[in-house]
Structures are given as C-alpha cells and as structure tokens.
Amino acid sequence: MGTESGRNPQQWTLGELAGRLDVQLQGDQHHCVSGIGTLQNAEPHQVAFLANPGYRKQLADTSAGAVILTEQDAQEFNGNCLISPAPYVSYARLADWFVPEPQPAGIHDSAVVDDHAIIGQGVQIGANAVIGPGCQLGRNVQIGAGCVLESDCLVADDTVIMAKTWIGPNTRIGQRVRVHPGAVLGSDGFGLAWNQDHWKKVPQLGGLQIGDDCEIGANTTIDRGSIGNTVLHQDVRLDNQIQIAHNVEIGAHTAIAACTGIAGSTKIGAYCLIGGACGIGGHLQIADRITLTGMSMVTHSLRIAGSYGSAIPAAPEKIWHRNIARLRQLDKLWRRLKRTDKQ
Amino acid sequence: MGTESGRNPQQWTLGELAGRLDVQLQGDQHHCVSGIGTLQNAEPHQVAFLANPGYRKQLADTSAGAVILTEQDAQEFNGNCLISPAPYVSYARLADWFVPEPQPAGIHDSAVVDDHAIIGQGVQIGANAVIGPGCQLGRNVQIGAGCVLESDCLVADDTVIMAKTWIGPNTRIGQRVRVHPGAVLGSDGFGLAWNQDHWKKVPQLGGLQIGDDCEIGANTTIDRGSIGNTVLHQDVRLDNQIQIAHNVEIGAHTAIAACTGIAGSTKIGAYCLIGGACGIGGHLQIADRITLTGMSMVTHSLRIAGSYGSAIPAAPEKIWHRNIARLRQLDKLWRRLKRTDKQ
Amino acid sequence: MGTESGRNPQQWTLGELAGRLDVQLQGDQHHCVSGIGTLQNAEPHQVAFLANPGYRKQLADTSAGAVILTEQDAQEFNGNCLISPAPYVSYARLADWFVPEPQPAGIHDSAVVDDHAIIGQGVQIGANAVIGPGCQLGRNVQIGAGCVLESDCLVADDTVIMAKTWIGPNTRIGQRVRVHPGAVLGSDGFGLAWNQDHWKKVPQLGGLQIGDDCEIGANTTIDRGSIGNTVLHQDVRLDNQIQIAHNVEIGAHTAIAACTGIAGSTKIGAYCLIGGACGIGGHLQIADRITLTGMSMVTHSLRIAGSYGSAIPAAPEKIWHRNIARLRQLDKLWRRLKRTDKQ
C-alpha cells in the first residue's frame, strides 16, 4: 500500500531522484520508481524512508525500490539507498511531488463575496463560502467550501484556508499559512466579571495575528485578544483540537500536538515542543526551547530551557488503585517517617 | 418527563410489547403504554428500564407502567416487568420505535452537487451541502445541511452524515455508519520535518477508511494517513471531540469515550473500551480487550488484555497540595528509607 | 496597543466617565480619553484597569490616562484613578461602549429559511444559514452565516448564535444567550448497548434546554438527553471545546473553563467554578459552590462545597521520571515501612 504519482503520473530513475533531492545514491542508478510507501509495505517501484529509529528493524525485510536514510543506517543496508543528512526532510520533498494540483482559480457561483472585499489574482473560493465586507485576500489564496470570513480579515499570499473554517473580524493571517477544516480563528475569549450575583460578559475587543508559514489543525480554536492581540509568530505549528485562549503569544517555530489547551495571556517561547493534551495555565511565561511531554500540566512559569513533564503512564488498574490510595496518604507517611527518623 | 411515540403516535398493551421485544412479561398484559421514561420520572403510560445497578434503588418508587429489567431484579419488584437477559438492548429496541422518520429523499435546491458525483437511490442531501467531483453516495445515504464532501469520497448504503461534517478527498465510509455534526474526517495529519531552522510540512498523501456500522461523534477529528491509510474497522464507536491521528488503526467493536486523543501510527485492538480524555502515544500496540479508565495516559504498548489506568481522583485542594509536595520528593524519601533499612 | 472607540468615535472627560460608570474619580476630571488599553500598553488617551493582583507591579509605570482600580490600590497610585468596588465589572461596562454595532436586521438572500419557521422582529440571519421547519426565533435574534438549525428549535429574544453553529431538533435556548462559532448543541449522546457480539445504538430521544444569559464557547459540544433533557440553567458560562454529555444538568451561574468534559447524567451545582481540561465522571452529584482546579478528575460525587484538585504540576523530566518510578512502587514501600515500624 502506498501512493502513486498522482499529479504527474510518471517515473524516475534513482539517479534522477538523487539529483533532484540533492542526496547521495548508493545502489542501482537505473532502477525506476514511481511512488512512495512505508518500509513495511513499499513495493520495488516505490521509495520508502527511515527516520524514526523504532522502525529500523523493518529495514532488513523491506521490498522498497530504494530507502531514504542516514549514512549510518546505510552501512547496515544492502538495498538501494538515498543517503541524506535529514531523511525525513528529503522524504517530505519527494512527497511534495505527489500532492494533487490545487483546484483552478475562480470563485464558485454559490460563494457569497461582499462587494467591498478585495480579491487578489489567482484566488480560489469554494462553494458556499462567505467573504465579509472589507476582507482582503492576497494572491493565490485558497478558501475552501463553506468557510466564513467575517468583516475586515486580511489573508496574505499563498495561504490555504480549508473548508468550513471560521475567521473572526479583523483577523490577520500571514503568507503560506495552512488552516485545516473546522478551525475557529478569532473567537471571543472567556472573559467574565462576577457582578454581585451574576456574570457580566467582558467584551473581547482585541484581534488575532497569525504569522507566515503557520499551520492550524482541524477544529482548533484560537481566541482573539480581550484588549490587545493574540499572536502566533512565524512558523508556529498547531495540531488538531488545540485551544488557545485570548492574548496568548506563541513564539516562532513552536510546535504543539493535538488537544493541548493554553489559558489566557500566557507567553510561549520560540522553538518549544509541546506534547499532546497538555494544559498550560494563564498569565505564565514559558521560555524558548522548552519541551513538554504529553498530558503535562503547567501552573508556574518555566524559565529554563529543557524538558518537563507531570503525567503518569497507565498501569494495571488494581496495582494503580493501591498506589493511589497510598499517594493520598503520602503526607502522613512522610510525617511518620520523620518521627521514626528522630527516634 | 419522557418521550411519547412520535413517529407513530399509538399505544401498545404490555402483552403486545413483550411479543415484539421478545421478552417475558410479568404482570398485567392488558396495561396500555405509549411512551418511554426514566425510572424516576416515568408515568403509568410509560415504560422505563433498569440497566445500571446504581439506579436500582429507584425501582421501589417508580410510577412507570412497566420496567424492563433482568430476571434477578424482577424478583424484588412488584410492578409490571418486561424481563430481558439484556434490559438495555431491549430498551434500545423499544426506543427505536420513537425515532422520527428521516426527511424524505431528495436533493435540496441549494445543495451544490458536482456533475461527476454518483448519487444512489433514496439519497437525501440537505441545504447548502457540497458534494465534490467523483463522490459516490450509496442507496439511502443522508447528507446533512452544510456538509462538505471533497472529491472522490465513497459513502456506502444507509449511512447518515449529519450536518456540517467535512469529509476529505478519497475517504471511504462503510454501510450504516453515523457521523455526528461538525466531525472532520480525513484531515491532514501533523507531519513536520525539522529542516535546519524551520519546519517543513510533510505532505499527507494517505486516506481514511471507516468500516461498516461505525459511529463518529460531534466535532471529532480523524486524520488521513501520511502514506497508507488511517483505518477504523467495523462497529467502532467514537464519542464527541475525539482526535485520531494519521495512520492509527482501531479494531472492530472498540468504543472510545469523549475527548480522548490517539497519536500517530498506534494500533488499537478489537473490543477495547477506552475511557474519556485518555491520551495514547504514537507508534504503540494496544492489544484486544484492553480497558482504559478515564484520563489515563499510555506511553508504552499494552500487550495483555485487562484494565489499566493512571489518573488520580480529586481530593480537597489543601490535602492534595501537601501530597503533591511529598510526591515531588518521593525519590529522595525512598533513598532515605533504604539507608535507614541498611542501618 | 489598545482599542479606540469604534462604534461612536468620540471622547469623554474622566469626569463624564466617572458619572457614566458610577465610580469615584481621583485626579483630573477634565482629562480626555477615547479608548481602552492594558496597564502595560495604554497611552494617555486610554483607560486601563487593575483587577488581577499579578499585574499590580505594572501600575507604577503605566502611561494610561486613567486606571480603574479598587480604593486600596488607589492609595498607592499617583495618576488619575476611577475607583470601583469591582474594577473588572466597571471595565467591562466601559468596554461595552466599544463593541461594534450588530449587523442590521434582515435575512440574507442566500439563507434557507423554511416556510414554517416563525421569525421575530429585528432578526438577523446570515449568509447560507439554514433554518428548519417549526423553528421560532424571538425578537432581535442574530443567526450567523452558515448556521444550521434543525427542526423545531426555539431561540428566545436577543440571543446571538454566531456563525457555523449547529442546533439539533427541538433545542430550547433562552434569552440573551451567546453561542460562539462551531458549537454543536443537541447532538446525540454516546448511548450504546452491548448486544452479544456487537454494539446496538441506543436512540437519543431527549432534548436540550439552555437557560437565559448562558454563553457557549467555540466548538463546544452539548448532547441532548437520551430520554429526558440535558439542562443548562440560567447564566451558565462554558468556554471553548467543552464536552457535555447527555442528561447532564448544570446549575445557575456555574462557569467552566475550556476543554473540560462531563460524562452522562452528572448533576453540577450552582455557582461552581470548574477549571480547564477537567474530567468529571458520569452519574455524579457535584454540590453548589464547588471549585475544581485545572485538569482534575472527578470519579465520586462531591457533596461539600470547597476547592478540589488532582493534577500535578510539571517538573524537570528526569526528576519526574524518578518520582514516577517510586510512585509505581508506593504500595510496596508502605508495606515495608509498616513492617519496619512493627520491628
């Protein structure tokens, strides 16, 4: 099972491939390939890759026509290799050739585009999309079917907004950004003031700025600022179902896995790697180059680069229940131990 | 408070009901009922059920016209009973009679259906739905209002896609599947390769296959594979707001509660029961018949059937803070204890 | 960076402001302001506020033209103050003046409104919205672009349903409710009965009732009841990406932060404050005035008002791993200690 060349159904010799990917070939330069596959499932006309060491054991048995791998892994492999200092990057470049062509430019008849929107050259707007007054779409922007852009949004060149995304008023989105279906960008933050005997909504008046080259996952929600802006700097990568509260700022090149939530006004540094389903409290500072393991909770600022965690891996339920029971008495245990020590 | 017979406003004697549900009646076969209700709220013209033992204490005071229960529970109840080896299944069958008729077949004028889509007999397509080129909808498929099906999706007979769902290109959905509103099926996975000083997107070229009789909850997201497919086998049941990453495979009859996330390339067995808000890491193997309690984290493969957990139930905050403080010094405590032991 | 007066571009003297907000002015009553800003960024023509003590240190350096604060904070501030017993409430009132006017009443040409829907005076329905048969929209209701209301929904006066929301059949929504984009209100609950060798879907026949003045966050999902109703009482405030299962009942004035999930048939009291990413089990009773800290899990009823928690803050990964290893042997440690004690 793998992927054939869709856009340009064609084949390449490994020699050509090595040249185009700027990697070193070890093996038969005349062998022809026309698709990509996994180490486990690739066939002789397909190229596979080895990036995650956990899959190294599959190398011996692969039927792939060639494997993209590091120089070190190549030493233990007899088949055709494309040797790269960064096999996953080289694979990604190869995979780019298999991405289907985007739909042709044009605005679908059923789209509702306000007369006061400014639409750049090469823009594609899908069926039933709604583009509000004052919106500006740069060159080659793609807006999927059923999207709703409220008033005065700015979407810069070459950005792709996939179907069924909502973009709030005044949102600014950079170049080459990719937003996946169902995302909500620029919603009201959760601002409430307790007024004697009921909640008073605090109007959310700020905006949302998304830098160039960011990626926003499916059904992810990002609130606009309450006064100032919520900001994603360049090349921030968000997976699906992430929640970013009002006035959060995320530094360049930070990547966040699915289901993580970040509370209001927290500032995340650059080059951070945040695991899935983490919870990060509000009004915190997370330094550059922080790694958080999955399902961690952060309640204080983390000011020193490094890896942090707080989640506990699952154990058989009976054993776990016994340990929880003890954990809930841990303070008492500790005190008793101290008494014993003194005696 | 309960539900009256909507589709066919009518009434049945308990004798008729017992026959149609294939259960044993104990009590007045001529008593007439016309609706269903809970043990607590049902009235004499309504049928209730007892499946969760936590509600057994409500049996004594129920005003229900009859109760569906097990033979054992029937021994302690003086009212009319419908005795079933599986009361919840029998209740579900009865409840089926109260489900409103689906809307009549037909394609709403405002729907945008590509000329190259193939639409089966009895298909119903709601207002403002968008069906892309190359899609095939089997017999009696229902597509809700505002859905977007990208190109080349296959939806088999009798499947119901509720409103505002997005289905990515080439997705294959089996028969009798039910997808709830806002689901995103076949989005790009979170594939990123670090390229010296920035992220390079790894194209997501695989597909998504959903087996017969699956159910997908509201706002749940399922990524398509990066090379091969993401696969849900037959009768997989997913609750709301679940996140399934690329290349995950879920075995038949596995049920997963809301808000759980599963990272990429993990394989979940058949007949698993996975609690809400769990986090399951990537590239793992979860065996058949694994039960995970709610909010558990899994970071290693689980190869032996059974129940696992790792979450901790809430305690009063002050006590909990003291125990956390000790937990964070637990390794030190342990070492001290060992020293004491040796002495 | 701040927000200028958008709706009515104008300015006020601090004297006027104090009068309109019913607060006490300390400072120059003739100073003119025309916008709002944060303590850190506000300029002399803008008003800032101090509500969260964590920002008190910014008071000394603010350039704001005036600051809304408590009498106590005013004693340590030399600039212009608007003294309020509840500064955040006073700020919210001021911020209300900067909220843009709603779009004018009217039904967009592209909206699909069933002939049997009843539409009140002053209603605004956005592009491509779908209003099903039997729906009733009260006065001044706003329905955003791309919303889908299934049959027989009732939306009371002055409620705002933002774009791309789905509302299931028979849902009842009170007055002045605000629903944010992508919410799913009234979806089927996760009702499954195990029938020998496969799952049988349990029809979900109940409804959803949302009280006056509630707020529902973006991409939040609320299931309708299985027999009776899911109920949100008055002034319940839900953040983004919350999951509320079937037959949950939430008491008046309870606020829940993002990403929390509540399992079926649980009853949450009034005046509760529930942190983000909590998981609350099914069939539980949570008393009035319970506070849950973020990422807590609740598996038993909480019957006494107070603050509860169970999550653990992140620590450096190496230290944390050592403590986890000990935690997993905690029961053994405890037993050993007991033996030592006896000796």
List the helices and strands and how they pair.
3 copies of one chain form a homotrimer.
Chain A: E1 2-4, E2 12-13, H1 14-21, E3 24-26, E4 32-33, E5 35-37, E6 46-49, E7 66-69, H2 71-74, E8 81-83, H3 87-96, E9 106-107, E10 112-113, E11 118-119, E12 124-125, E13 130-131, E14 136-137, E15 142-143, E16 148-149, E17 154-155, E18 160-161, E19 166-167, E20 172-173, E21 178-179, E22 184-187, E23 192-195, E24 198-201, E25 208-210, E26 215-216, E27 221-223, E28 230-232, E29 237-238, E30 243-244, E31 249-250, E32 255-256, E33 261-262, E34 267-268, E35 273-274, E36 279-280, E37 285-286, E38 290-292, E39 297-298, E40 306-309, E41 315-316, H4 317-327, H5 330-342
Which short descriptors sum up this protein?
homotrimer; 5 helices; ten-stranded parallel β-sheet; 2 domains; 41 strands; 343 residues; eleven-stranded parallel β-sheet; Udp-n-acetylmuramoylalanyl-d-glutamate--2,6- Diaminopimelate Ligase, Chain: A, domain 1; alpha/beta; UDP N-Acetylglucosamine Acyltransferase, domain 1
Could you provide a short overview of the structure?
The structure is a homotrimer of 343-residue chains. The first copy, chain A, contains five helices and 41 strands. Chain A is an alpha/beta fold.
Report the major sheet of chain A.
11 strands, parallel
The amount of helix of chain A comes to 10-25%
The number of distinct structural domains of chain A comes to 2
Ends distance of chain A:
69 Å
Query: Strand-residue fraction of chain A?
Result: 25-35%
Number of beta strands of chain A = 41
CATH superfamily of the largest domain in chain A: Hexapeptide repeat proteins
Give me the secondary-structure category of chain A: alpha/beta
CATH class of the largest domain in chain A: Mainly Beta
**Mean pLDDT figure of chain A:** 94
> What would CATH call the architecture of the largest domain in chain A?
3 Solenoid
Largest interface: A-B, 75 and 76 residues
State Rg of chain A.
25 Å
- Are there runs of chain A of 5+ residues with pLDDT below 50, and where? none
Tally of DSSP helical segments of chain A: 5
Given the C-alpha coordinates, what overall shape of chain A results?
flat
- Oligomeric state of the chains in view: homotrimer
> What is the CATH third-level topology name of the largest domain in chain A?
UDP N-Acetylglucosamine Acyltransferase, domain 1
Question: Largest beta sheet of chain A: what is the strand line-up?
Answer: 9-12-15-18-21-26-29-32-35-38-40
